[in-house]
Q: What sequence folds into this?
């Protein structure tokens, strides 16, 4: 059986990765989503085992020591990691799986899975990104500043990705992501 494709989605904080992904996964059933582990405290409404596996630092580093992550990274002062088992099992079952991870994580995944498909979600402009972070209102001033500073660095990483999607219109961004996933499934060779 053909192995599934690993799709990696990155983009600066506030660009709308979560929104685009939720919209995609809602009625597109041909792809699985990899739930990350994090030491970040849960935001209001976030559910353990659905949005993230919320772990203590001790639990997180236990998983690191046991080699249970494909990649892990410190992002905006918290740790995030992709659990290995579910990703590997899904790919072996011939199903596609999407990871929503930061650029450092994507760099590490590239070492192990060079054949994966790397997609970068861009804001229409930097000021729009700032506006979205303000509107989301989930971060305090200091965290927001840090996320914006990191975003400028993250945008430089675009050259290492296979595809870019500009998240101007949500429906259009979702359609483009879906088109990429479908096209990659039809690809003869990489
Ligand atoms: P947030 O705290 O807003 O949910 O996520 C912050 C950043 O961490 C985002 O850029 C997101 O893509 C990234 N992230 C989420 N899960 C993972 C993961 O498993 N590994 C890595 N490297 N980054 C992640």
A:
């Amino acid at each position: 059986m053909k192995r599934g494709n690993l799709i990696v989605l990155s983009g600066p904080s506030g660009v709308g990765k979560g929104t685009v992904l939720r919209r995609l996964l809602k009625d597109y059933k041909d792809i699985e989503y990899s739930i990350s582990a994090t030491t970040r405290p849960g935001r209001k409404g976030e559910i353990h085992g659905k949005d993230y596996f919320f772990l203590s630092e001790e639990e997180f580093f236990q998983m690191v020591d046991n080699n249970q992550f494909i990649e892990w990274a410190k992002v905006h002062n918290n740790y995030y990691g992709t659990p290995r088992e579910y990703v590997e099992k899904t790919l072996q079952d011939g199903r596609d799986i999407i990871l929503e991870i930061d650029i450092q994580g994507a760099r590490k995944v590239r070492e192990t899975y060079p054949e994966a498909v790397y997609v970068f979600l861009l804001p229409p402009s930097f000021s729009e990104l700032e506006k979205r972070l303000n509107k989301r209102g989930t971060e305090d001033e200091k965290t927001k500043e840090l996320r914006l500073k990191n975003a400028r660095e993250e945008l430089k990483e675009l050259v290492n990705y296979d595809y870019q999607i500009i998240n101007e219109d949500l429906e259009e961004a979702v359609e483009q992501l879906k088109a990429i996933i479908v096209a990659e499934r039809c690809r003869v060779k990489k």
In short: The CA atoms of residues 13 and 147 lie 6 Å apart. The radius of gyration is 16 Å. The helical segments are 17-27, 57-65, 84-92, 103-112, 126-136, 141-155, 170-186.
